[in-house]
Amino acid sequence: MSPPLEIPFLTVSGAFTGRNARANLSLSQNSAMFSIKQILRKWSGRKPVAATPEPSAYTIPENRPLTRQERTLTEWLIANGVPEARSFRAQLDHLRVVGRCSCGCPTVDLAVESSQGSTAGASLILADYIGVTPEGIEVGVILHAREGKLSELEVYSLGKTDTTNRTFDLPAIESLKPFIPPEVDG
Question: Is 40 inside any structural domain?
Fold first, then answer.
């Protein structure tokens, strides 16, 4: 398994950070704007399309324990992510959901019980997988840590199914496979 990935040339524009496919990402190269979906299309060899404004997603505040499905998936990602992910296992019993994405995806912001809100700053990617939801939607799943704490369970559509104004569930664990980015020509 490859080491955790931090991408210094990637910045998130908008009113929030660490959000999924609805966020606009700017790459320093040529100051072009791409959405995650468009970047994935380029990586998968499909012709990229011109960036178009997308509706902004935002965080809806929540304060609740993880659902059984969120906990099971997070526990599996910790066990199967990068080796450093195992050191976050002790936080699982104290983890709460402090926000969710407004776009309909099942992405949630996490905080350890003693924290009131989610953390900010550079993300350490503990696990990066692709899978399929019960609705048949192909998704990416990333478990993030920030400031030494579990901070986000990100689940986003890979764009092969239109999920506009549609909610979808977490992927089935048995469908998860490690995300391996294709070689990018430099």
Answer: no
**Distance (Å, rounded) from C-alpha 168 to C-alpha 104?**
7
Residue 7 lies in a domain: no
**Could you tell me if 48 and 184 are in contact, meaning their C-beta atoms sit under 8 angstroms apart?**
no
Q: What's the mean per-residue pLDDT of the chain?
A: 76
Main-chain phi, psi angles of 129, to 5 degrees: -130, 165
The verdict on residue 145 lying in a domain is yes
Structurally, the chain folds into a number of domains equal to: 1
DSSP 171: P
- Whole-model pTM above 0.85? no
Report the range of poorest mean pLDDT among 77-86, 131-140, 156-165, 168-177: 156-165
Determine the Cα–Cα distance for residues 36 and 79; give it in Å rounded to an integer.
26
Q: What is the C-alpha to C-alpha distance for residues 134 and 169, in angstroms, rounded to an integer?
A: 7
